Amino acid sequence: MKVAAIFGLIMAGLAVAACQATMSEAAQVILAGTTNIDVATNPMREYRRPDGSECQVYRYYRIGVGVARQGQATVCRYRGQKWILISRVLDPLPATPGSGDGGVIGAPGQMQPITQ
């Protein structure tokens, strides 16, 4: 009876391990040398450039001072070669109140005095 229970636990553990996503070699290149970012395990997009190299685009999340930021990173390689980081670009920050973007009530130039 105990052997069957232990065998069941081992099989359940193997099933969970098989379902977990592993970090691809391409995603590891994006992380190389950087300790404050996380990379999605699956690419958002894959494409082939005119020079024959294959490329993958990943979402990544950068944890820094203040707010965490998101971005996209592109890695490319020629068949049989190692992945190379081509670009890593953060998404633009959203407009904030008072930033002078003109569309926010209370931005500089839109305030009216309440006394005469």
Q: Would you kindly provide a brief summary of this structure?
A:
The chain is of the alpha+beta class. Helix content is 22%, strand content 28%.
Taking all Cα atoms into account, the compactness measure Rg is 24 Å
Unreliable stretches covering 5 or more consecutive residues: 5-20, 101-107
Number of DSSP E strands: 5
| Element pattern in H and E | HHEEEEE
Helical residue percent band: 10-25%
**General form:** globular
Give the amount of beta strand, in percent. Answer: 25-35%
SS-based structural class? alpha+beta
Q: In whole angstroms, how far apart are the ends?
A: 89 Å
**Largest sheet, described in full?**
5 strands, antiparallel
What's the mean pLDDT score?
74
Fold and architecture overview:
The protein is 22% helix and 28% strand. It contains two helices and five strands; from the N terminus they run ααβββββ. The chain has helices at residues 2-19, 25-31; strands at residues 37-39, 45-48, 54-62, 69-77, 84-90. Residues 5-20 and 101-107 have low confidence and may be disordered. Strands 1, 2, 3, 4 and 5 form a five-stranded antiparallel β-sheet that branches. The protein has 116 residues and is α+β, with helices and mostly antiparallel strands.
Main traits of this protein?
single chain; 28% strand; 2 helices; 5 strands
